[in-house]
Amino acid sequence: MKSNKGKRVIPGFGLSMGITLSFLSLLVLIPFASMVWSASGIGLRGFIEVVTSKRVMAGYQVSFLCALIAALINSLFGVILSWVLVRYRFPFKRVVDGLIELPFALPTAVAGISLTALYSEQGLLGSFFRKLGIEIAYTRIGIVVAMVFITIPFVVRSIQPVLEKIDAQYEEAASMLGADRRVIFFRIILPEIIPALLTGFGLAFARALGEYGSVVFIAGNTPMKTEIVPLLIMSKLQQYDYGGATAIALVMLIASFVILLLINTVQLFSSKFTRA
Amino acid sequence: MKKTSQQGRLVPRLLVIVSILFLIVMLVLPIVTVLVNALKNGWNEYAAAVSDQYTIKAMQLTLVATITAVLINTFFGLFAAWLISKFKFRGRKMLTTFLDIPFAVSPVIAGLIFFLTFGRIGWAYDILNKINFQIVFAVPGIILATIFVTMPFISREIIPVMSLQSEEEEAAALMGAKGFTIFRKVTLPHIKWALLYGIILCSARAMGEFGAVSVLSGHLRGKTNTLPLHVEILYNEYQYSQAFAVSSILVIFAIVILIVRNIVEYKGRKESEQ
Lengths: 276, 274
Known about the structure:
Structural class of chain B: mainly alpha
CATH topology of the largest domain in chain A: MetI-like fold
Largest interface: A-B, 93 and 97 residues
Strand content of chain A: under 5%
CATH architecture of the largest domain in chain A: Orthogonal Bundle
Oligomer: heterodimer
Shape of chain A: globular
Number of helices of chain B: 14
Radius of gyration of chain A: 23 Å
Number of helices of chain A: 13
Helix content of chain A: over 70%
Low-confidence stretches of chain B: 1-5
Shape of chain B: globular
Structural class of chain A: mainly alpha
CATH superfamily of the largest domain in chain B: MetI-like
CATH class of the largest domain in chain B: Mainly Alpha
Distance between the termini of chain B: 23 Å
Mean pLDDT of chain B: 88
C-alpha cells in the first residue's frame, strides 16, 4: 500500500526525474525526432514512392510473414516448454531451463553464421533436409529458422510465471467432475495463460521483425524473395540514400508500435475477461 | 501437481521428449556447430585466429563498449527505477513505455537514428565537428548504440522489486536519513539480486549487439570493429574457420553468462524464500 499523502516523503524525486528525462531525451527523443525530421526532407510523394516500391513491398511481405510464422511456432513450443518445465520432473531439468536464455546471451552474428553452416547443403541438418527436397539456408524457411532461434525465450519466459501460480485445485476439481485432460487444458489452463501468451507472442513478433544479425547470413538476401526490411534499410544507407532508408524505417516503426499497442489492448481485454 | 502422474505417463513423456528435441535442434546443435567448425583446421589455426591482433583489438573494443554501457545503464537504471517505483506522477505510464522503446525497435533503426543525428547529414555533426568529436564511424558511436539497445534491461529488472516496499524507505526518510543513505542501507539490500541479474542481461546483450553497431561502425578494422562485427568480416571474406574461432570466444562468454545468471537467480530465489 502506498500512502497518497506521504508520497514525497522519500527524497530524490527531482534528481531522478531530471536524470531520467535528460537521459531519455538524449538517447531516445532527440534521435527519433531527427529521424522524423530527416524523413520529412524527401516529401510526401518521395516517401510514398519509396515505401510502395516493389522491392520494398516485397521486403515488408517477407519480414512480416516470416516473423509471424516464427512467433506462431514459438507460441506452440513456448506453451509446451513452459508446461514441461513447470509441471514435470525430468533429468537435467535445470540445464534445460538455463539453456532457454541462450539466444539472449549468444551474439546474433554468431547465431547467424552457425545456423547457416548447420542448415546449408553441406551442413548436418541442411543435407538431411535436402534429401527430403527441402532447402532451408538461403530461403524463407531459413529466415524463419533464424527468427525462431532468437525469439525462443520470449514466450516461455512470459508463460512460466503464470503457470507456476495456477492453483492445481481447479484441475483436480475438474478432473473429479469428469473432465478429461484436453478439456482441462483448453477450459482451465489456456484461458489463464492467454494474456501471457499474447505478450510473449507480441514480443517475439516485434523482435523477429526487427532482427538483423542472425537473419542476414542465412537469408541469402535475394531481392524480392529473401530480403528483409532491416537489410533494405542497411543497403539504402550504404548507397547514401538516407531519405529512402528513413522512409522504410519509419513505416517499420509505426507498424511495430501498432502491433505492440494491439497486443496490449487484447491483453487488457482478455485479462479482464478471465478475471470476471 | 502429482495428480498428473495418475493420468498415464505417455503424454508427459512425449511432451518432455518434444521439448528436449526442439532445444537440441534449435539451441545445442548451433553451439556444437560453432565449436566443430572452429576446430576444423586444427588447434594451431584456432589459436592463431583467436590471438590475431585484429581479434584482440576487437575484443578490447567489445569489452570497453560493454563495460561503459553497463556502467551508464546501471546509473541511469537505478534513477529511472527509483523514479517509477517510489513516486506517483502524471505521465508515469508513458515514461515506462518510453523506457521500453529499445526493445520494440529494430537494432538497424537504432543505429539509423544516431546516424541521422550525428552523422555527416545530421544536424549535430557541425557542432560536434567544431570540437573535433566524431561519433559516427568511431568508438563513441559504438558505445552510444550499445547503451541504447541495452537501456531497458537494468531498470526493468529492478522496478518490480523496488515497487514492492516503500514503507521502510519512508520510515528512514522520516527519521531523517539522507537520500543516498536510504538507498544504500534500505533499498540496495532488497534489490541487489535483481540488479545483478539486470547487469548480467545487459552485459550479454551489449557484448553481442550487431545491427545497431554495424550501422555506426564503418567497419574499420582494428579501430571500430567489435567481436561480432569481426566475425561478420571474416565470414564474408570466406575465412570460415577463423570466423568460427572468433565466434567460439563469444560462445564461451555466452555460456559463462548463462551459468552466472542461473547462480544469481538461484541465490536470489533462495534468499527471498528465507
